[in-house]
Amino acid sequence: MKNQQLDKRRQDATPRGVGVMCGFYAEKAENATLWDVEGNEYIDFSAGIAVLNTGHRHPKVIAAVERQLQSFTHTAYQVVPYESYVSLAERINERVPVEKPAKTTFFSTGAEAVENAVKIARAYTRRPGIITFCGGFHGRTFMTMALTGKVAPYKIGFGPFPGSVFHAQYPNALHGVSVQDAMDSIERLFKSDIEPTQVAAILLEPVQGEGGFIPAPAEFMQALRTLCDEHGILLIADEVQSGFARTGKLFSMEHHSVKPDLMTMAKSLAGGFPLSGVAGRAEVMDAPGPGGLGGTYAGNPLSVAAAHAVLDVIDEEQLCQRASQLGQHLVEVLTKARETCPHIAEIRAQGSMVAVEFLDPQTGKPSADFTRGVMQRAMKEGLLLLSCGVYGNVIRFLYPLTIPQTQFSKALDILSRALQQEAAAQ
């Protein structure tokens, strides 16, 4: 079956609302390499949108799932529980950067984790309000669409959304938003939209994902913690995209001196199997009553087995350290590329959570066209890249942290050529 034939079938059988980036179809994958149905080979710098920090089909993950397949595949944890769920929660509790004791519960998707974090926060505080940030992305369900601070393509045509959700500014020095500007915007919400005694939580990504891989400044995180403590508000860190070694730490919040009250996680937690979680201070996590949390597939045993293997691989292969090393190498290449690519306005990095933002050198405005051009040139040479940013003018890099060094260097050579060629073509 050819890619073109499959794409015609896709268009006939599936709705256009499910956007698809690539015109080719996967047949097999291994670590950082994908092969399509026509035998073409690609270096995967998308990793299933940050799901595969341990690579495609890591042998230890596959072996763990195969072992679990021989025991049972489903009981519904709320009906018949199993030890692997409990021991995974114990492992997460030990490592999350929240005040101890901690507790963890599992779900299937990142959006589910975020929704349940909101439920827990409201149950604990007995307050309705949630403050989140412009540019943030938290999911595609109705509550998480409301929380998301980016309209296109996530919100168009789907309103109205749940209430008591308010958006503040997120610090972005390149676009003229300081930490003080962001904090002032929260104070304006307190004056114009909701009193602080009615706010259950402030929710943010410590590194905005879809918003452009923008790390929260340390000063901002400290100011948020102080503000939350002052008003009895919970601080929720959404680590769905930034978690599990991507930033050079197991969690991005470990780069900060403050601790959140709740954390959400998903994506690379289970190495390609659907699993998410909410972790937090025990007294907060215990606020909902029995039956208030859960889901039929929540904490699926196959995914839980995979997650145990993922944590083992991160430790055994020192993926936090490798994330820092790979990220530094990539930043050096991008910095060198600035010499011949005036469109590069900013390079942002926390470990291997790296992004490059493009502005038109003549107008200073975001350049989504240049971004697409670079991605298309890279894809023609067999390198898959993803864009992000409110204006679609950012390329984010999400290679598996297990990628072989020679393949990583090859990918960076392709990237350098794509940047140089697109700059010359403008």
TrEMBL record:
Record flagged with keyword Transmembrane helix: no
GO molecular function: 4-aminobutyrate:2-oxoglutarate transaminase activity; identical protein binding; pyridoxal phosphate binding
Superkingdom of origin organism: Bacteria
Chemical reaction(s) catalysed: 4-aminobutanoate + 2-oxoglutarate = succinate semialdehyde + L-glutamate
UniProt keyword Transferase, yes or no: yes
GO biological process: gamma-aminobutyric acid metabolic process
Cofactor: pyridoxal 5'-phosphate
Keywords of the record: Aminotransferase, Pyridoxal phosphate, Transferase
Transmembrane feature ranges: none
Pfam families (UniProt xref): Aminotran_3
Family: Belongs to the class-III pyridoxal-phosphate-dependent aminotransferase family.
Protein name: 4-aminobutyrate transaminase
